[in-house]
Write a structure and sequence with these properties.
The protein is α+β, with helices and mostly antiparallel strands. Helices cover 27% and strands 24% of the residues. It has one domain.
Length: 120
């Protein structure tokens, strides 16, 4: 299994997209409710764990996402800047082994230009 996707986030509004589609915390909250305040990144905490789970639920079975999301938080989400960001992420797993994660940061801000991304 190998998946490549782009995550983009706006720091002030906490608006996050995954491959251009808004990433909502709703489904992930029904699985594990880490953060009633929503998604966040750039540190290890409840908001980043919610973001990690929300992203992984789009890629893998629920039980796998639950099992992997804390490590994904540490290895990917916590390493994002506490600012607007764009990041290309690779999630891979060979032959039933351990998941591997890679991240490449780009220039943030393009997603924050949309009206939906403005602070409320």
């Amino acid at each position: 299994m190998k998946a490549t996707f782009t995550l983009a986030g706006c720091w002030r509004s906490r608006y996050v997209t995954m491959d251009g589609r808004e990433l909502h915390p709703g489904r992930s909250r029904h699985v594990v409710n880490h953060s009633p305040d929503g998604l966040s990144w750039g540190y290890e905490g409840s908001g980043p764990a919610q973001l990690a789970l929300a992203a992984l639920l789009r890629l893998m079975a629920e039980w796998e996402a639950v099992a992997e999301h804390q490590r994904f938080t540490r290895e990917v989400i916590a390493r994002l800047p506490q600012a607007d960001f764009v990041a290309d992420v690779i999630v891979s797993r060979e032959g039933g082994g351990k998941y591997e994660y890679a991240i490449s940061l780009g220039v943030g801000g393009r997603e924050c230009l949309t009206s939906r991304a403005q602070p409320i």
